[in-house]
C-alpha cells in the first residue's frame, strides 16, 4: 500500500518504448487518459447530435447546453466578431473540462496536473492570439505595448513592463490550472492516507473531509476549465479589438 | 397570424438584438473569472521578468545586474496586471 500523495502524478509508459529521432514518443498513461477524454467528448457530441428531436433527450440537452454556454461566453467577452473562433474555444473548454473530470475518478490520472500539458495548451493560445492580432491589425498590433498618454521619458521602461506583462500571460494561464489540479488531488490523497493510518476509530473525520473535498474538487475542475476558456476569450478580445 | 407576419416580426427582433450586441462591444468578463485571474498574474509576471533577466545576464555576462533590475520590472508588470484586472472588474460592477 503506497501512502505517498505524489505517487498519483507519476507518468509511466504503457507498452513498448518508441524513440523517433532521439525524441521519446512512448505511449504513457497521460496519453491514455487524454485519449479517453477525447473519446468521451467525441461520443458525447456524436450521440448528442444524432437524433435532433424538438424535445431533447438528456444527452442532447447536455450537448446543446455546452454549445450555448460557450457561444454566450464568447459573445459576452470578445464580442460578435470572435464568433469565428468558437470551435477553438469550445475544443479547449471541453478538453480541459473532461481531463479534469476524468481525473476525479479513483485510480485515474489527471492529465491537467502536469505542467507541460497546461503550458503547451497556454502556449498554443498565446501564439495563436499573437498571430491573429498581427493578421488583423498588422504592425499596428504593437500599439498594445504603448499605452496612450505616457510621457516620452517613461516610455522605454513602460514598454518593457508591458512586454513582460504580455509574456506572463501563458505562464499565469498554465500555472493556475496546473496548481489547482495538483493541490486538490494531493490534498485528497493526504486525507485518504489519514483515513487509513487512523484506522476504524479515528478515521471517520478525515473520511468526511475527503467526501467534502471531492465535491469541492469537482467544482474546481469545472471552474478551472471555465476560467481557462474565458481567459482565452479575453485574450482574443484584446487581439481583435485592440484596446485595454 | 400568418407565416409572413411571423417572419417579419422575427426579423425585427433579430435586428434589435444585433443593435444591443453591437452597443456592448465585448470586454465583459464575469468578475469571478477575473478574480481568479489576479492571484497568479502577480507571481507569473515576476517569474517571467526574472527569467528574462537571468537569460540576458548569461548572454551579456553581467551577472547580478540585469536579473535584479528585471526582477523589479517584473514586479511592476505584475502590479500592472493586477491593477488592470481590478479596474476591469470595477468597470463591470458599475455597469
Structural overview:
The complex is a heterodimer of chains A (244) and B (95). With 244 residues, chain A is mainly alpha-helical. Chain A is built from 6 helices and 2 strands. In chain A, strand 1 (19-20) and strand 2 (23-24) form a beta hairpin. In chain A, helix 4 (115-137) runs parallel beside helix 6 (204-241) and helix 5 (155-202) packs antiparallel against helix 6 (204-241). Chain A is globular and about 70 Å long. Chain A starts with 18 loop residues before the first strand and ends with a helix. The model of chain A has no long low-confidence stretch (mean pLDDT 87). Chain B is mainly α and 95 residues long. Chain B has one domain (28-94). Chain B is 88% helix and 0% strand. Chain B has helices at 3-24, 31-60, 63-94. In chain B, helix 2 runs antiparallel to helix 3. The longest helix of chain B has 32 residues, at 63-94. The relative contact order of chain B is 0.13. The A-B interface holds A 75-82, 157, 160-162, 164-165, 167-169, 171-172, 175-176, 179, 223, 226-227, 230-231, 233-234, 237, 240-241, 243-244 and B 18, 21-22, 24-30, 33, 36-37, 39-41, 43-45, 47-49, 52, 70, 73-74, 76-78, 80-81, 84.
Amino acid at each position: 500500500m503506497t501512502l505517498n500523495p505524489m505517487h498519483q502524478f507519476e507518468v509511466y509508459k504503457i507498452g513498448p518504448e518508441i524513440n523517433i529521432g532521439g525524441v521519446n514518443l512512448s505511449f504513457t498513461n497521460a496519453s491514455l487518459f487524454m485519449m479517453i477524454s477525447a473519446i468521451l467528448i467525441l461520443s458525447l457530441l456524436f450521440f448528442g447530435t444524432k437524433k435532433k428531436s424538438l424535445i431533447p433527450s438528456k444527452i442532447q440537452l447536455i450537448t446543446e447546453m455546452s454549445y450555448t454556454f460557450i457561444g454566450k461566453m464568447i459573445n459576452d467577452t470578445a464580442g460578435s466578431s470572435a464568433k469565428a473562433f468558437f470551435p477553438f474555444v469550445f475544443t479547449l473548454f471541453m478538453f480541459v473540462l473532461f481531463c479534469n473530470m476524468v481525473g476525479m475518478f479513483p485510480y485515474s490520472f489527471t492529465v491537467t496536473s502536469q505542467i507541460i500539458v497546461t503550458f503547451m495548451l497556454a502556449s498554443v493560445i498565446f501564439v495563436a492570439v499573437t498571430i491573429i492580432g498581427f493578421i488583423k491589425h498588422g504592425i499596428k498590433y504593437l500599439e498594445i505595448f504603448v499605452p496612450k498618454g505616457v510621457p516620452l521619458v517613461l516610455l522605454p521602461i513602460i514598454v518593457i513592463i508591458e512586454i513582460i506583462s504580455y509574456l506572463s500571460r501563458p505562464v499565469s494561464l498554465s500555472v493556475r490550472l496546473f496548481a489547482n489540479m495538483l493541490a486538490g488531488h494531493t490534498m485528497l490523497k493526504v486525507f485518504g492516507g489519514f483515513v487509513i493510518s487512523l484506522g476504524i476509530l479515528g478515521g471517520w473525520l478525515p473520511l468526511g473531509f475527503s467526501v467534502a473535498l471531492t465535491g469541492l474538487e469537482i467544482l474546481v475542475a469545472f471552474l478551472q476549465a471555465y476560467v481557462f476558456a474565458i481567459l482565452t476569450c479575453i485574450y482574443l478580445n484584446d487581439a481583435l479589438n485592440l484596446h485595454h | 397570424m400568418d407565416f409572413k407576419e411571423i417572419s417579419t416580426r422575427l426579423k425585427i427582433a433579430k435586428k434589435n438584438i444585433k443593435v444591443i450586441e453591437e452597443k456592448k462591444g465585448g470586454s465583459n468578463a464575469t468578475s469571478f473569472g477575473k478574480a481568479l485571474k489576479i492571484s497568479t498574474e502577480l507571481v507569473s509576471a515576476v517569474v517571467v521578468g526574472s527569467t528574462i533577466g537571468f537569460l540576458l545576464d548569461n548572454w551579456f555576462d553581467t551577472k547580478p545586474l540585469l536579473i535584479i533590475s528585471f526582477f523589479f520590472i517584473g514586479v511592476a508588470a505584475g502590479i500592472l496586471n493586477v491593477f488592470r484586472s481590478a479596474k476591469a472588474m470595477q468597470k463591470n460592477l458599475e455597469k
